[in-house]
Automatic annotation (TrEMBL):
Cited SMART domains: BTK, C2, PH, RasGAP
Gene assigned in the entry: RASAL1
InterPro entries: C2_dom, C2_domain_sf, PH-like_dom_sf, PH_domain, Ras_GTPase, RasGAP_CS, RasGAP_dom, Rho_GTPase_activation_prot
Assigned keywords, A-Z: GTPase activation, Metal-binding, Repeat, Zinc, Zinc-finger
Originating organism: Physeter macrocephalus
Positions of the UniProt region annotated as Disordered: 678-699
Native organism taxonomy: Eukaryota, Metazoa, Chordata, Craniata, Vertebrata
Protein name listed in UniProt: RasGAP-activating-like protein 1 isoform X2
Length: 744
């Protein structure tokens, strides 16, 4: 099988390049890289900003290559060559068009700290003695590091991090291929487990050290992130957040992901801007824990926008003067009149929104506040410089405003703030409000920039709000850190917050007979984190209630039990241990699913949940579902914790979440094999090394290969065990539901 494929590359010319020399010109040349390996270099065209190279190469691409890059540099006789820009083409982009790419492509800016290259060889071992656990990191060597000094070399040293501890190797001068062979030992500190991280730096006697690259010790979460992308990564993040949250480990989980993301970010302006597993997980955590809080903050103003249906527009290109009300008796309103009226309406909505947000510190769930406190500390440690003072606030506001409040304002239905989508006019009003909130969340960084200069009339209000938001963020993270964020599942529903309310038809079980239709009485129900209460009307002060902590099951009822559709049952247990059932009928299947979801979510942490119950009713001395004659007979159907509507309000379901993670591992099995086992077939016996000559010594060191094979073997064992466990589980489930022989 071929190990590589060929690609014809022609570097033709450049134009309008920037001047890098004091003479107002440049001396450009181009290099071609496959991943991090330079494969070709053009001649230098002296004193030209529109160079013509006209050079052609045949490049051999390995089958597993990721991207092909072209760097344009300015050659200097003294010091470093200046990087003018680069073009990067992914493997997918190259393969997308069999005819090839033949066009002008704009150069992109190059961040030197992001242009890392090379490899490092480590041997890591966990030891235990009477003093506890110790991580032993044997830093062997590195190769092909980026040159950072003016002579084309570097002075590299390694820095090893484990939790709050760090140790450094010695510095090897003037080399890109350092050999350390040093052992660093770090003791385990109290607290949650931390990943191992190794950073390489170029030591400088003057100025700050230059970053050369970083390596994280491979973890299951890192592997899962590599196997997923797009919508699949968002689904994975949702399941992982629920899985860890249900075990009281959301805090360590989020802290690990955010620290990993922050550590590998060199430009603070790009922090959490990608759809990484860390960004998606924090976003889903906010939805899981903070949705009642979001409803309390935003719902009053969102309802006003929907009900008042006011026309608002600041963009002159979109103004429709015919749809506006007459502002004066002198004729149709002008653009200026519409702009002033719209500005008044927008600030009239934005004012209460910002008042509600900055005044909500005490109502924000403690789990979110603690997660943000951890995030802020992590960012401060990574970017302590004075010029990055605002990064710690932007990291928090980026999640809270840009990924939570602003999307909820833009599409209220997706956040359960409204039952229906907005009409076009209301959608435009919501878009303007969301843009304003987004600008406030950016803390004014991009205010007045870009194409939307028509937002300028709002700038005074936005700038005033930004200072309030900074104070709000400082108060938000001023919280006791002793409690772990995302601990017990009951934090999902705050006791004082109304999760759902509305009219339902209620019937309580009766000892005999089939209840007639009129036995279902119309009552107004309210569900909070601690109580399901009901009364004749919303205003009625006389209420009956069911403590949420007494709920043992929330299930659908077969339509034949009462000859009525959309009925559910709430099974509760009193202090004496007796079970009671309340039957509730909803208007339609959507409302039924919404109430099922809300009740199961509120009662998720309750102990002693029922494993089985009856989907029918007990009448005529037997159960309508299984025909058992004893009212106290064991249930004939399994109870459920999940619902049919897949959204943020689904109850925690560890089985479903674990199954999804397992499915991702199965789907990525081949990629994992290629990644971890691609070199496992190499023969590293001394005889084989002799036969292969220098090629074996130029590859990975024997210790690294041994560790790679060991990891690959463990991975295969884990996948095999998962396969076997999955098959056994399926057989058990089939035996559980297998019907017996039919009887006459």
């Amino acid at each position: 099988m071929a190990k590589s494929s060929s690609l014809n590359v022609r570097v033709v010319e450049g134009r309008a390049l920037p001047a890098k020399d004091v003479s107002g010109s440049s001396d450009p040349y181009c290099i071609v890289k496959v991943d991090d390996e330079v494969v070709a270099r053009t001649a230098t065209i002296w004193r030209s900003l529109s160079p013509f190279w006209g050079e052609e190469y045949t490049v051999h691409l390995p089958l597993d290559f990721h991207h092909l890059a072209f760097y344009v540099l300015d050659e200097d006789t003294v010091g470093h060559d200046d990087i003018i820009g680069k073009i990067s083409l992914s493997r997918e982009a190259i393969a997308a068009d069999p005819r090839g790419i033949d066009s002008w492509i704009s150069l992109s800016h190059v961040d030197p700290d992001a242009e890392v290259q090379g490899e490092i060889c480590l041997a890591v071992q966990m030891l235990e003695d009477v003093r506890g656990r110790c991580l032993r990191c044997h830093v062997l060597q590195a190769r092909d590091l980026a040159p950072r000094d003016i002579f084309g070399t570097s002075d590299p040293f390694a820095r090893v991090f484990w939790g709050s501890q760090s140790l450094e190797t010695s510095t090897i001068k003037k080399t890109r291929f350092p050999h350390w062979d040093e052992v660093l030992e770090l003791r385990e500190m109290p607290g949650s487990p931390s990943p191992l991280r190794v950073e390489l730096w170029d030591w400088d006697i003057v100025g700050k050290n230059d970053f050369l690259g970083m390596e994280d010790a491979a973890s299951p979460l890192a592997v899962l992130e590599e196997l997923t992308s797009g919508d699949c990564r968002q689904e994975l993040a949702t399941k992982l957040v629920k899985l860890f949250f249900g075990q009281g480990l959301a805090g360590p989980f989020l802290d690990y992901l955010t620290r990993r993301e922050v550590a590998r970010t060199t430009d603070p302006n790009t922090l959490f801007r990608s759809n990484s597993l860390a960004s998606k997980s924090m976003e889903q955590f906010l939805k899981l824990v903070g949705m009642p809080y979001l409803h309390e903050v935003l719902r009053p103003v969102i309802n006003r926008v929907f009900e008042e249906k006011m026309y608002m527009e600041l963009d002159p290109c979109r103004m429709d003067l015919g749809r506006t009300r007459r502002i004066s008796f002198k004729g149709a309103p002008s653009e200026e009149h519409v702009r002033e009226a719209s500005l008044g309406l927008l600030t009239g909505y934005l004012g209460p929104i910002m008042d509600a947000i900055v005044g909500s510190v005490g109502r924000c769930p403690p789990a979110i506040r603690l997660a943000f406190k951890q995030l802020r500390q992590c960012v401060e440690e990574r970017f302590p410089q004075a010029e990055h003072e605002d990064v710690k606030n932007l990291a928090i506001s980026g999640f809270l405003f840009l990924r939570f409040f602003a999307p909820a304002i833009l599409t209220p239905k997706l956040f359960d703030l409204r039952d229906q989508h907005a009409d076009p006019q209301t959608s435009r009003s919501l878009l303007l409000l969301a843009k304003a909130v987004q600008s406030i969340g950016n803390l004014g960084q991009q205010l007045g920039q870009g194409k939307e200069l028509w937002m300028a009339p709002l700038h005074p209000f936005l700038l005033q709000s930004i200072s309030r938001v900074r104070d709000f963020l400082n108060q938000l993270v001023d919280v006791d850190g002793k409690e772990e964020p995302g601990g017990p599942a009951r934090a999902l529903v705050l006791p004082s917050v109304t999760v759902r309310e509305g009219y339902l038809l209620k019937h309580k079980e009766e000892p005999t007979g089939l209840a007639p239709r009129f036995a279902f009485k119309k009552r107004y129900f309210r569900l909070s984190g601690e109580m399901l209460s009901y009364s004749r009307s919303p205003e009625c002060q006389m209420r009956s209630s069911i403590p949420v902590s007494h709920i043992r099951a929330v299930e659908r009822v077969d339509e034949g039990a009462f000859q009525l559709p959309h009925v559910m049952q709430v099974v509760t247990q009193d202090g004496a241990g007796a079970l009671h059932t309340t039957y509730l009928q909803c208007k339609n299947v959507n409302e039924l699913n919404q109430w099922l979801s809300a009740l199961r979510k509120a009662s998720a942490p309750n102990p002693d949940k029922l494993a089985a119950w009856h989907p029918g009713a007990f009448r005529s001395a037997h159960w309508t579902c299984c025909l058992q004659a004893e009212r106290s007979a064991a249930g004939c159907s399994r109870t459920h914790s999940a619902v049919t509507l897949g959204d943020w309000s689904d109850p925690l379901d560890p089985d479903a979440e674990t199954q999804m993670v397992y499915r991702q591992l199965l789907l990525g099995r081949d990629r994992l094999r290629m990644k971890f086992l691609e070199d496992s077939t190499l023969d590293t016996t001394p005889e084989a090394d002799t036969e292969k000559g220098s090629s074996a010594t130029e590859g990975a060191c024997p210790d690294a290969l041994a560790h790679q094979r060991e990891a690959a073997a463990r991975l295969l064992e884990v996948l095999a065990d998962l396969d076997q466990a999955h098959e056994e589980f399926q057989h058990q489930e089939q035996r559980k539901v297998a019907p017996g022989p039919l009887r006459p």
